[in-house]
Amino acid sequence: MTATAPKKVALITGVTGQDGAYLSELLLDKGYEVHGIKRRASLFNTDRIDHLYQDPHADHPRFTLHYGDLTDSTNLIRIIQQVQPDEIYNLAAMSHVAVSFEEPEYTANADGIGTLRILEAIRILGLQKKTRFYQASTSELYGLVQEIPQKESTPFYPRSPYAVAKLYAYWITVNYREAYGIYACNGVLFNHESPLRGETFVTRKITRAIARIALGLQDCLYLGNMSALRDWGHAKDYVEMQWLMLQQQQAEDFVIATGVQYSVRQFVEFAARELGITLVFSGEGDQEIATVEKVAPVGGELKAKCKPGDVIVRVDPRYYRPTEVETLLGDPSKAKAKLGWVPKITLPELVKEMVESDYQSAKRDSLVKLAGFRAYDYNE
Ligand code: NDP
Ligand code: GDR
């Protein structure tokens, strides 16, 4: 296969997000022609995919971006008609669970009805036999868990406007598969992270804050429920599964997870340890804190400036959710048996990569600060 005769055409919604970036890389490596839908924003929002940019004036560019939005049917129909994709990966969503309590109607529109709009576009354009559809479903569907670990047959009990919207998207995907014979499937993905993770999700918030605290750019990290348990994998591993799910004989739904669970508190502990900081947790509920017990060099280099006795993590109840998902643990046996899929990257490796990446960018910020400019800081 050559660059001028691509084998397949893929359309990715949510191309500017974490998964969109890794999936674009994967599909381009496989020789696909990749089209992505990005939203208009007042600032550039393509940081994660800028390295994939191809001059649209070049002959046969293999990576093309289109303006669009999941809340705009006519726009989606037009793009799908123009692109005639073999595969659509619907990754776009208002994906922050806590924010969905603030914007429930918009979340339902984008995450729930947005999925319907794409499936209807496939039907209206007569692409039922040509276009395969992947829906980014989520472990949040299990919410108040009915079974441990959670697998494909575990009943759903969503606990946020986000999860309820995704429940609609899950079932409309199943329905269009059964009603119209569309190759449409749900990947029920458990949390997956990376250095490209949005800064307000808990893992990235932690790795970013620990790096900044280590370099003296920030004093304290404020978190919500540190006892929440999650099954965290690496986004790079998980996008491979998204592609695999569309390459089968028959469309089916799969749970994708590592099968290992840690608490938010443990994630903080692991992240701090990467920079040589040992923490002690004390207090309960809103009063819980983490204090530096000791600071040691890492690989011969003293990376953290904080001192024993410094309190660097506190609880801020503003980060509590009206209804919380306390525990999630996936059973990926079906994906292993049918797709031959197993996650390659472990949680310690994931934490290491994320901390290292955030440490390097905090170092750049501290140089800016040393030069007399105000370093950018926020704690969301
Ligand atoms: P991100 O939040 O990083 O990316 C979401 C993407 O959706 C961004 O490109 C965003 O654009 C785009 N988007 C948001 N609203 C709209 C809209 N109305 N119209 C068009 N595009 C929109 O999410 P992830 O990459 O982490 O996740 C990808 C998908 O997988 C999401 O659907 C998420 O809900 C789901 N999921 C994620 C899991 C995870 O742990 N990461 C686990 C399970 C499911 P912009 O850049 O402009 O904001
Ligand atoms: P989640 O991810 O809600 O599982 O959704 P997030 O990282 O936001 O929260 C994980 C857990 O950590 C607790 N927590 C905090 N969370 C945030 N964001 N900020 C905090 O300060 C904080 N303190 C504690 C949360 O309460 C929660 O229990 C992610 C998203 O990517 C969804 O789109 C996806 O569907 C699911 O993962 C699977």
TrEMBL record:
<dbReference type="GO" id="GO:0008446">
    <property type="term" value="F:GDP-mannose 4,6-dehydratase activity"/>
</dbReference>
<comment type="similarity">
    <text>Belongs to the NAD(P)-dependent epimerase/dehydratase family. GDP-mannose 4,6-dehydratase subfamily.</text>
</comment>
<dbReference type="Pfam" id="PF16363">
    <property type="entry name" value="GDP_Man_Dehyd"/>
</dbReference>
<dbReference type="GO" id="GO:0042351">
    <property type="term" value="P:'de novo' GDP-L-fucose biosynthetic process"/>
</dbReference>
<dbReference type="InterPro" id="IPR006368">
    <property type="entry name" value="GDP_Man_deHydtase"/>
</dbReference>
<dbReference type="InterPro" id="IPR016040">
    <property type="entry name" value="NAD(P)-bd_dom"/>
</dbReference>
<feature type="domain" description="NAD(P)-binding">
    <location>
        <begin position="11"/>
        <end position="354"/>
    </location>
</feature>
<protein>
    <recommendedName>
        <fullName>GDP-mannose 4,6-dehydratase</fullName>
        <ecNumber>4.2.1.47</ecNumber>
    </recommendedName>
</protein>
<dbReference type="InterPro" id="IPR036291">
    <property type="entry name" value="NAD(P)-bd_dom_sf"/>
</dbReference>
<keyword id="KW-0521">NADP</keyword>
<comment type="function">
    <text>Catalyzes the conversion of GDP-D-mannose to GDP-4-dehydro-6-deoxy-D-mannose.</text>
</comment>
<dbReference type="GO" id="GO:0070401">
    <property type="term" value="F:NADP+ binding"/>
</dbReference>
<keyword id="KW-0456">Lyase</keyword>
